[in-house]
Amino acid sequence: MDLKIEDVDDLCTGAAFLGAGGGGDPYIGGLMVKEELRAGRRIRILDPDEIDDDLLVIPTAMMGAPTVLLEKIPSGDEPLRALQAVETALGRRADATMPTEVGGINSTIPLFVGARLGLPVIDADGQGRAFPELQMETFAIEGIAGTPMGIADEKGDFATIRTEDHHRMEWIARGITIRMGGTAYFANYPMRGAEVKRASVKHTLTLARRIGAIIRTARARRIDPFEELETFLATTSYGVARRIFSGKITDLDRQTDRGFTLGQVTISPDGPGADCVIAFQNENLSAKADGALLAIVPDIITVLDSETAAPITNETLRYGQRVTVMAVGVPPIMRSERALRQFGPAAFGLADTYVPLGPF
Amino acid sequence: MKIGVDVGGTNTDAVILDGHGVRGWRKTPTTADVQSGIVAAISAALADAGAQAEDVDCVMIGTTQFTNAVIERRALQQVGVIRLALPATSAIPPLTDWPDDLVQAVGRHVTLVAGGYEFDGREIAPLDERAISKAAREWKAQGLKAAAVTSVFSPMNGTMERRAAEIILNEAPDLAVSLSGELGQFGLLPRENSTIINAALAGLATRVVGAFRAALKDLGLTVPLFISQNDGTLMRVEDVERYPVLTFASGPTNSMRGAAHLAGMGDAMVVDIGGTTSDIGMLRNGFPRQSTHFVDVGGVKTNFRMPDVLAVGLGGGSIIRDGGRRIGPDSVGYELTRRALCFGGDTLTATDIAVAGGWADVGDAVHLQGIGRDTIAAARTEMQRLIAANVEKMKTEARDLPLLVVGGGAILVDWDVPTASEVVRPAYASVANAVGAAIAQVSGEVETVVSITEANRAQVLDDARAEARRNAVSAGAIEASVEIIEVEQVPISYLPGNPSRLRVKAVGDLPV
């Protein structure tokens, strides 16, 4: 299947939805992809269930501060150079690329790489949403080596990283990103088709596009977008989605610590009742009302405009916005014990135990 | 005394304000030369107030001339576009995602050169001065009159943009050069878009500002002249010549602030009813609530915030159908006084309903005897429903607020709105826009990226506040009246040293 230019905006909206408040605004990435398609290049999307077991897949993405990306747009060569660094280290050319993270801007980088290098893009990723760190991947949980990893900037500088451990890979790459000017582009977790089938969250590019299309068209079709999202997501591997709160933003506390945006947003209901407090570390981690847990990571907590159902990233939250909070379950591969060690509540320093989002 | 003027697409309104409120006003048609319309409106308003030119302390003008030029793709110049950024940013060149007709209007004279800054102030690359000279020579040869310069992170450091302007002017001294760093705000693409549009308006800006000045001269007014900008504050007329784009959202801002002033209320909903649409917005402390997203102007993403207004298809010229059950969204617009029944025309409009119902008095009710009671009642109910539902939609708090009704179409409303605590149609509602221009303050702004720690936070914020105050004073504010109205600190994630984007804004009164 080929990605069409008219699908790009929907895919970006859906990627912002799956970003759970983080992941960076996909706007810039969406523009890059549209430019490639306008120039006549092709983006072929492959179903992970249908690929050859020995296909070499090298995922690509960007890391760093989304706010820097808004000023310093890439040259476009960075992710290509990162991928080529991995190819050199492996002594073999990639047969395909794929996202490491479907939430936010990183849904778009592999599409751009695919267009530029003529590589197909696998319809799957390693997070099923957005997470802040490189070891927070289903690939890592399933025992895929993160390195050799290539990381590159717009100046032509690149590095090849080899570590024994996924956390060390994150630590070293984060340091390089800062030296590269706050944003960097990378390729890591090189793997075979058989490993993609075992270790990825499947069909997430398609999922993002479908979510975006629902949000775009619901109003025109006079259908409640929230209801339709709930109905649709229940039919996917995510299993369940439901509105957990709606009201108006009445407080917003944001700080940086250890290189992350930490804080919480308070939403007050229209009528009487307890406020909803969402804690975030780049992405939304937990939502509580009156101390009772409404949803918690790794389940997706996403804040939507009550009027349009447009996803609102944490950088653009503002006092007075009328919002609806939706929680979405995650596929079984992300709820295993090993998965929860990598990106469950404890991995973010939360004391709460994971309670999977149920239907009601 | 102050004079507030609103130069709209259809009407030019003038009001005379003194410490006690509106002393005189006049609504006149906007003229093709702009100038004679302003002269007519101001002199009639002065006569209405029984005032003389020498009683006037300053003149404030709000105008939609520049917004309309972009929307209608008219009076725009070709622009030489230069971006200081290589090797970064080439994945998305300037003018990407612009509508084709607007690209045609500004041309595709685009150059990317080495330069720009990193977030921490280092250079991405040294500025490629020779490439800039070469581009400027080409633009000169092509007869271009305007140029737009954008550098990565220029809101933080504008040195490279200013150096590029020097080089361009050295090669082509007649070029009007717009610098993105002076248009503020982070976000390279929207800022660059605004800068290019600004440059495209340079010629029109000179003509319009010339018309404003000439109008004042004709009237014998030798007082300071200010122009309304997006955020409801004023800029000096010489700044408008350089930055016409800063006037873009001033229309809705002025009418909402004018409504607040006329009604003496700070927290309220406002509906500004024009000929074709009604704009509904919300006031808090006398200022409109801003939209959370950057706005599109003429199909291009800019870096301006506008008041969050919802346009509803109800205006004085809205066409009434189905025995009053359907209103608009089409309208007879500026032809109201020719096509509406009450003016002897052949089209049933919302204004006709208000006149036939006996709560408005324009035109001649004699033409309206054929309109049935049922039609009037149905149309009235439908207008009421439209406003009530959309006021509810725009309200961000649970309690009901007063609804202020202003604009030329304010006469449509004599009914209650169930979603508002009361409906207020202040005196001079039809010229709220010009009143908003007259009461505006001047502002000063600071936007920067700084490392904020617990130890230095107080000092950093104090420094920024002081700089914003200085900027307000240099824009013309009385020092004692300056206050800080906005402090926004947004952390930049994933980076050590706690860098934050800091924006501080101060406003103050003009000496009158």
Automatic annotation (TrEMBL), chain A:
Task: Report which superkingdom the organism of origin falls in.
Answer: Bacteria
Where does the record place a coiled coil? none
Q: Where is the S-Me-THD N-terminal domain?
A: 6-161
Domain S-Me-THD-like C-terminal, which positions? 165-357
Recorded hits in Gene3D superfamilies, A to Z, give: CV3147-like (2.40.390.10), CV3147-like domain (3.40.1610.10)
Pfam families from the UniProt entry: S-Me-THD_C, S-Me-THD_N
Q: Which InterPro entries match?
A: S-Me-THD-like_C (IPR048350), S-Me-THD_C_sf (IPR024071), S-Me-THD_N (IPR010318), S-Me-THD_N_sf (IPR027479)
- Which parts pass through the membrane? none
**Quick one: signal sequence residues?**
none
- What protein is this chain from? DUF917 domain-containing protein
Q: According to the entry, what is the taxonomic lineage of the organism?
A: Bacteria, Pseudomonadati, Pseudomonadota, Alphaproteobacteria, Rhodobacterales
UniProtKB/TrEMBL annotation, chain B:
Residue ranges occupied by any Hydantoinase A/oxoprolinase domain in the UniProt entry: 191-356
* InterPro entries associated with the record: ATPase_NBD (IPR043129), Hydant_A_N (IPR008040), Hydantoinase_A (IPR002821), Oxoprolinase-like (IPR045079)
User: What GO terms are given for molecular function?
Assistant: hydrolase activity
Which residues, if any, are the signal sequence?
A: none
Gene3D superfamilies per UniProt: 3.30.420.40
Top-level taxon in the UniProt lineage: Bacteria
* Domain (Hydantoinase/oxoprolinase N-terminal): residue spans on this chain: 2-171
Q: What is this protein called?
A: Hydantoinase subunit beta
- The protein's organism comes out as Meridianimarinicoccus roseus
**Upper lineage:** Bacteria, Pseudomonadati, Pseudomonadota, Alphaproteobacteria, Rhodobacterales
